[in-house]
Design brief:
The complex is a heterodimer of chains A (124) and B (701). In chain A, 66% of the residues lie in helices and 0% in strands. Chain A is mostly helical and 124 residues long. The chains are: A mainly alpha (124), B mainly alpha (701).
Chain lengths: 124, 701
């Protein structure tokens, strides 16, 4: 197998280790997906469901980055990988936070506490 | 759509073509519709006939459609964009003609060339085409062609993914094209805001054509962005540090980053709307908890970075040409790099200014208004840098410099009207008026279109081995500048007079003089389009006189000018070792730049593959089947895509090896040719004495 992103053969790394890493990633992703579905179909409160699904999603992102995309914070690639993660997190925070900011403000001004309708956004 | 869906043909039947409308009711609108469909049909037949008559099918398949060479893929992107540009400009002309005849009266409110519904299709397709299938392919094509050559790389990091991206973009363009003949396009504008575009108010195929065109070409653009980013990070020649990259590479990096993070937002909003329309979801419906405001939110989260995706490559082109044609080094390299990166990041923080009037509180509006004004600063820095680059330079007024001058004069007006619109209280007055239409055309035409056309003119010799005719190039540039001024500056006035955008009719006779001026401008734009194609044709006919085998017709300073024109498949005989920021220029300064490398070795290139073509074919069948509810075909072609990917994954693919002897032979021939050609001074650059070998002693960049 080759070192990440170089095309140079890495004598330390064998095909078996590579496949093992992918297999672990696949198994963990599968478990987390099943866990999210179980949470969604169980009888726990809606807040708990959302919380559990969010945690499962975040863990799955980490798994994908680590096992499939070979991101690591040690080794020669670590600085670039760290910058990549920080930049992505910044942009995602801008997008998600901005959406929260805009949509909750709109929701307030739409008087969503009005009776008889259902609402997708709650400001609280 | 009244009949039941057929299990074999879905909703397709013989009633869906514009000819049915023409037979039912003959008027100017149905004639225009049927005429457009006929142009599509006849154009396709003519194209097929030409390819068959010239026996070009084989060469087309072997040398172009299956080639993973980034240079060829770039040229194909640009060819696609020019075809779509022709349709987009003609549509713009039809709309201007319509509005020039659309003065209604109280008794007869609707008049004009086309029916209101037809007009709505026109502005929807015009916007969709110009953004997604003209501007995007132009810039992606130009980056594909130039970026590897400037970085000192032989190809993109993922050549086959590149091919797939081109295929997916073409599928999107083909869907929009085929909607001329089969069925109708959506009427919701290029943004397709729900709930109007939901299934309740827009049944039928129109919005679905848009959705699938956007979803499929959007995936292609995301892949392209990743490809560019990896290429820039991993494929630079040894010694090509980040701060030695030409500015076009820097803006390409910004574009790549923005594509990676912005395009998925568009995919998400379109996928949610598709779920609403196909699967009875309620993301954006009026009832059942839908929230259509979130569509605008997610769409513009993509839409605003998209604006800068479009403009930044043009900024890169202007950086290159302002330096080369002034014979001066680029002024303020570092400030231009910082400005580009700032634009790339800030562009993610301003999206709300596209919906200031949606109802959020003033605090939210002003936060985004301030961010919008801030993004004007790095753009201003760049304009000053280019002007300083040209200051006291020996500027040659070539076609790209005419575009650049037009850009300076007009883009600043467009940028300033943008700063005006960034103020929410002013936006409340002029939003949704033709003032806004004038503003965004005023940034996109002088910015993107002029930049891309200047870039095509600049790098054309590198692609085909001969220069474009300067006289016709300048005429085209002047026509595009004049056409823009006459078409769009009146729209500022009309907007301030209160004319809403996208209105098929109006009752105020005071609008008419401005409408006629804008209509005249549209005629100029058509002339500019014709002149553009004539430039290509006349240059092709004069290609022997315009040939530049030496490969460096403009006395450039970046790596791509060190190779022959047209550049060979492998681009560089040996990957260069970069010593300085303007490496080719520094070589010219120090010693004989055309020294042969000491030795040659075998070169490994990706082998040709029909993979991209097959994926594109399957995606087109899938999208077309989804639009017309032909479920069996949709399922089959959807499964075909992962099937094709898996199949390629299981094949052993041998790269193409180009023997050292072959490279050496071609390279020695090139160097011999350069040695035999006489060097040309700047004064003779436009004459046929320019054989692509410049007078190195004149180099000052």
């Amino acid at each position: 197998m080759t070192r990440p992103n170089t095309g140079e053969v890495d004598p330390q790394d064998g095909m078996a280790a590579e496949i093992k890493s992918y297999a672990i990633g696949f198994a963990v992703s599968l478990l987390l997906t099943l866990g999210a579905f179980t949470a969604a179909m169980s009888d726990i409160s809606a807040t708990m469901k959302v919380l559990l699904i969010c945690i499962a999603a975040l863990l799955q992102i980490v798994t994908h980055l680590r096992n499939f995309l070979h991101l690591s914070f040690s080794g020669e690639q670590s600085r670039e990988d760290l910058l990549l993660v920080l930049f992505s997190v910044t942009l995602l925070a801008i997008m998600a936070g901005g959406t929260w900011y805009i949509m909750s403000d709109l929701s307030d001004r739409m008087h969503t506490s009005h009776e008889g309708t259902t609402h997708s956004f709650k400001s609280n | 759509m009244n009949e039941a869906t057929s299990p074999i043909f879905g909703n397709l039947n013989w009633q869906v073509t514009p000819y049915t409308d023409l037979l039912r009711d003959v008027n100017s609108s149905t004639i225009v519709g049927a005429g457009a469909a006929s142009v599509l049909v006849l154009g396709t037949i003519a194209g097929v006939a030409l390819l068959t008559y010239m026996r070009w099918w084989g060469p087309l398949y072997r040398n172009w459609l299956t080639s993973p060479d980034a240079k060829k893929i770039g040229i194909m992107y640009i060819a696609l964009a020019l075809i779509m540009l022709a349709r987009g400009i003609i549509e713009g002309f039809v709309m201007r003609t319509h509005q020039a005849t659309a003065l209604g009266t109280l008794a007869q409110q609707e008049s004009g060339l086309v029916a209101p519904d037809h007009f709505a299709q026109l502005f929807s397709t015009h916007g969709t085409i110009m953004i997604f299938f003209v501007a995007m392919p132009l810039l992606i094509g130009l980056i594909n062609f130039v970026l590897p050559q400037q970085l000192g790389a032989r190809d993109m990091a993922f050549p086959v993914v590149n091919q797939v991206s081109l295929g997916l973009t073409t599928v999107g363009a083909a869907l929009v094209m085929i909607s001329l003949l089969i069925g109708k396009f959506g009427t919701g504008g290029w943004t397709m805001y729900p709930p109007y575009t939901g299934i309740e108010y827009s049944p039928g195929e129109g919005v679905d054509y848009w959705l699938w065109a956007i979803l499929i070409s959007g995936i292609g653009s995301t892949l392209t962005g990743m490809n560019f980013a990896v290429t820039i990070f991993k494929e630079r020649a040894p010694g090509m540090h980040f701060m030695r990259m030409p500015l076009f590479c820097w803006t390409s990096l910004c574009v790549a980053i923005m594509m990676i993070y912005a395009m998925p937002a568009l995919t998400v909003s379109s996928a949610m709307l598709a779920l609403d329309r196909y699967a009875g979801f309620h993301f954006f419906t009026n009832e059942a908890g839908g929230n259509m405001m979130n569509y605008a939110n997610i769409f513009w989260m993509f839409g605003h970075p998209e604006v800068y995706i479009l403009i930044l490559p043009a900024f890169g082109v202007f950086s290159e040409i302002s330096s080369t044609y002034s014979g001066k080094r680029l002024y303020g390299y570092t400030s231009l790099v910082i400005a580009s990166m700032s634009i790339a990041v800030i562009s993610f923080t301003v999206w709300l200014h596209h919906f200031f009037t949606m109802g959020q509180s003033a605090g939210v509006n002003i936060a985004f208004g301030i961010a919008t004004m801030i993004i004007g600063i790095p753009t201003g820095v760049k304009i000053y840098d280019w002007m300083a680059t040209m200051w006291r330079g020996r500027v040659r007024i070539t076609a790209p410099i005419v575009y650049l001058t037009g850009f300076f004069l007009l883009f600043v007006i467009g940028g300033l009207s943008g700063i005006i619109l960034a103020n929410p209280s002013i936006d409340y007055q002029v939003h949704n008026s033709t003032f806004l239409v004038a503003h965004f055309h005023n940034v996109i035409i002088p910015g993107v279109l002029y930049g891309m056309l200047a870039g095509i003119h600049y790098w054309f010799p590198k692609a085909f081995g001969f220069r474009l005719d300067e006289a016709w190039g300048r005429r085209t540039a002047f026509l595009f500048v004049g056409g823009f001024v006459f078409t769009f500056l009146p729209l500022y006035v009309l907007g301030l007079m209160g004319m809403p955008r996208r209105s098929p009719t109006f009752q105020n006779p005071d609008f008419m003089p401005w409408m006629y001026i804008a209509g005249f401008g549209a005629v100029l734009m058509l002339c500019a389009l014709t002149s553009l194609f004539w430039t290509f044709w006349t240059s092709y006919r004069n290609r022997l006189a315009l040939a530049v085998p030496g490969g460096d017709p403009w006395n450039g300073s970046t790596l791509e000018w060190s190779t022959p024109a047209p550049a060979p498949e492998w681009t560089f005989p040996r990957i260069p070792h970069v010593q300085a920021r303007h490496d080719w220029g520094e070589t010219k300064r120090s010693n004989d730049p055309w020294r042969a490398p000491k030795q040659y070795c075998d070169i490994e290139m990706p082998s040709n593959t029909p993979h991209g073509l097959l994926i594109a074919g399957a995606s087109f069948c899938f999208a077309f089947a989804m639009v017309w509810h032909i479920w069996w075909l949709a399922i089959l072609s959807f499964l075909a895509v992962p099937g094709l990917i898996a199949l390629r994954g299981m094949m052993i693919i041998e790269p193409k090896i180009i023997k050292a002897a072959e490279v050496e032979e071609a390279d020695c021939r090139f160097r011999q040719q350069v040695a035999n050609l006489s060097a040309v001074t700047r004064a003779d650059e436009e004459t046929s004495r320019n054989r692509g070998v410049p007078d190195v002693s004149e180099f000052a960049g």
